[in-house]
Design a protein that fits this description.
The complex is a heterodimer. Chain A is of the alpha+beta class. In chain A, 30% of the residues lie in helices and 20% in strands. In chain A, a hairpin with a 2-residue loop joins strand 7 (140-147) and strand 8 (150-157). Chain A is globular and about 75 Å long. The chains are: A alpha+beta, B alpha/beta.
Chain lengths: 204, 156
């Protein structure tokens, strides 16, 4: 009787595991997984490497997309403003270089050098983290708070409300979210959407 | 006299051949197409000149426009090019392509205020296509095909 019950349990757990599909992406409040991805300087980078970080501004972005390009300077500014306060930017390129050669690792190294990116610009070559986080377009921001080894998703969405004209921006979503987190408050606008480029998923 | 008439005719023709410049619209224009109830099917494609997969599928919208002309089916190409690129990118792009469907430039930079009003499942990436008829919509995110759109058109 015991062996039957045990085998049944094993069967069920195997079935559920085999039909397990990757999560559809994080929602605000979810715990985010850390990663180990290659930076443009050749070194592997994880969130846990940042010993004194209170959180992170994770941005899925790339070289080719005009929306990403329009935000490059603002992304640099976000890092320059918040890294010293404990919220560094961590940029991740999720695109398949076969679909978009401009988004190759070599392209990333070149761009990071040209623009003097002060933040880590990581290559999600297998696209595992783009899928896990639920990156839907570039650029796409996930602000995380950190407590010891745990990372919680606090904001998902756009950087601000005007891609093309920075002088016309009225809502700075990421800045507001990080300011609120730094002040120990809840993020009031925790989810927004924007127009962006499709993620170039691998065709396998 | 004859040569003058011929010349004027030709100049007029060339004017029409270049087609009309796209109108610049705000979101209420697009919203009215999504929720119209005049028995017309609107095939609304969101694209931009710099978006490679968008440009790649433009011929299919030309084909749809030709194939279903006069059948209460209207194709509208909604460009999300930046307003500043209207004269320098969008107009020349269209002049080189002879796109038959109506093209508009949607100038509504506060994207978060209207993406969900197109479809709550839309993550914001382009291309995206909506097929709208009598206030009901089908939404296709990403690149589409003639077959995929026709399957929706042919649904009872």
């Amino acid at each position: 009787m015991k062996t039957i019950a045990l085998s049944l349990l094993l069967c069920i757990s195997m079935l559920t595991l085999s039909s397990f599909s990757p999560p559809a992406g994080y929602k605000v409040g979810d715990k985010a997984r850390d990663f180990k991805l290659k930076n443009v300087d050749g070194k592997m980078v994880s969130l846990s490497d940042y010993k004194s970080a209170k959180g992170f501004i994770v941005i899925f972005t790339c070289n080719h997309c005009p929306f990403s390009k329009a935000y490059e300077d603002r992304i640099i500014a976000l890092h320059n403003k918040y890294a010293s306060q404990g919220f560094p930017v961590v940029a991740i390129n999720p695109n398949d270089e076969k679909a978009e050669p401009e988004d190759s690792f070599e392209g990333m190294v070149k761009r990071a050098k040209e623009k003097k990116f002060p933040f880590a610009y990581l290559h999600d070559q297998t696209q595992a983290y783009a899928r896990m986080y639920g990156a839907a377009r570039t650029p796409h921001v996930f602000v995380l708070s950190r407590k010891d080894k745990e990372f919680t998703v606090e904001y998902i969405g756009a950087i601000d409300d005007n891609t093309d004209d920075e002088s016309a921006v009225t809502k700075r979503y990421v800045e507001d979210a990080v300011d609120q987190l730094l002040g120990g408050k809840t993020v009031t606008t925790a989810f927004t959407k924007a127009i962006g480029c499709t993620i170039k998923w691998r065709k396998e | 006299m004859k040569s003058f008439l011929l010349l004027s005719c030709l100049s007029l023709c060339s004017l029409f051949a270049f087609g009309q410049k796209p109108s610049i619209v705000k979101f209420p224009y697009v919203e009215s197409l999504l929720h119209s109830s005049n028995d017309t099917t609107y095939i609304i494609n969101f694209w931009a000149t710099w978006c490679k997969p968008c440009v790649k599928e433009l011929p299919l919208f030309n084909e749809l426009n030709k194939k279903y002309k006069g059948q209460k089916i209207k194709v509208i190409l909604v460009s999300l090019d930046f307003l500043k690129d209207y004269e320098t990118r969008l107009v020349p792009f269209l002049q080189n392509r002879n796109m038959e469907p109506e093209v508009v430039l949607l100038h509504e930079p506060d994207y978060n205020s209207w993406i969900d009003r197109v479809n709550p499942n839309w993550g914001g990436a382009i291309p995206a296509t909506v097929i709208a008829k009598n206030n009901s919509q089908s939404f296709l995110e990403g690149e589409t095909t003639l077959k995929e759109i026709e399957n929706i058109l042919l649904k009872p």
